[in-house]
């Protein structure tokens, strides 16, 4: 349970940091952190209006499964794995869920 708490804390810290960064060209967009610490789902969602266009976009989505962080979506050029490792997460405790399972063994990160 202690390990899961550490993973949760790291993900929330990661999302809180990136939630402070707003798209320069969309000042009316709000960053929302979605953190379900019971079911272990975590997202950063950008929502609001850009002129007359409604924006609802998820740049980051994570899950915690079987004691590992699963990166489900990274719609940025940020090296999330490196950020998490810098926060003390073991490389083998990070799964690139957005990659096909047959490639996990070649990513240098964990496998399910």
Q: How far apart are the termini?
A: 18 Å
Strand order of the largest sheet: 1-2-3-4-5
Name the structural class.
alpha+beta
Number of strands: 5
Could you explain how this protein is built, in words?
It is a single chain. Strand 3 and strand 4 form a beta hairpin. The chain has 2 helices and 5 strands. It is an alpha+beta fold. The longest helix is centred in the N-terminal third of the chain and has 18 residues. The chain has one domain: TATA-Binding Protein, CATH 3.30.310.110.
Task: Offer a quick outline of the entry.
By secondary structure, this protein is of the alpha+beta class.
Task: Describe the secondary-structure layout.
Elements: H1 2-19, E1 29-36, E2 41-50, E3 53-65, E4 68-74, H2 80-86, E5 94-95
Parallel strand pairs: 4-5
Antiparallel strand pairs: 1-2, 2-3, 3-4
Features:
112 residues, 5 strands, alpha+beta, 22% helix, 2 helices, TATA-Binding Protein, 5-stranded mixed beta sheet
């Amino acid at each position: 349970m202690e390990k899961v708490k550490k993973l949760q804390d790291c993900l929330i810290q990661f999302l809180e940091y990136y939630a402070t960064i707003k798209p320069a060209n969309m000042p009316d967009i709000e960053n929302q952190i979605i953190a379900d610490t019971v079911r272990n789902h975590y997202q950063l969602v950008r929502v609001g209006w850009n002129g007359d266009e409604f924006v609802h976009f998820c740049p980051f989505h994570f899950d915690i499964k079987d004691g590992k962080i699963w990166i489900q979506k990274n719609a940025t050029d940020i090296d999330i794995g490196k950020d998490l490792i810098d926060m003390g997460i073991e490389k083998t405790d990070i799964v690139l869920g957005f990659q096909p399972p047959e490639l996990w063994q070649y990513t240098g990160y964990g496998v399910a």
